[in-house]
């Protein structure tokens, strides 16, 4: 759900895509766990921790109501879980495209300034 809502078609580069996906993963682990004790380092791909935490706050502010619905509404949980199972996660590097969930996004090395579609 988080990746679906946050990964945009015009993602600038692979590192930006990785940063968003890893932030979503960190928040998912933190949300589902009993305590927030996950080490931060494996989820960082940028030099600035501030960018990571800003992204976390943006995600929480934007999607926390949907995250809370997962536990509050069994039908919503089933809907999200069914969507997750049907999409899966595949990686196709042919033509510099990656399929993430139900979205296809271009994969471009950072600082090249161009995307291949």
Automatic annotation (TrEMBL):
MF (Gene Ontology): cyclin-dependent protein serine/threonine kinase activator activity; protein kinase binding
Residues forming coiled coils: none
Gene Ontology cellular component annotations, sorted alphabetically: cytoplasm; growth cone; protein kinase 5 complex
Gene3D superfamilies, per the entry: Cyclin-like
Taxonomic superkingdom: Eukaryota
Annotated GO biological process: axon guidance
Pfam families in alphabetical order: CDK5_activator
Stated family: Belongs to the cyclin-dependent kinase 5 activator family.
Annotated PANTHER family: CYCLIN DEPENDANT KINASE-5 ACTIVATOR, CYCLIN-DEPENDENT KINASE 5 ACTIVATOR
Name of the protein this chain belongs to: Cyclin-dependent kinase 5 activator 1
Source organism phylogeny: Eukaryota, Metazoa, Ecdysozoa, Arthropoda, Hexapoda
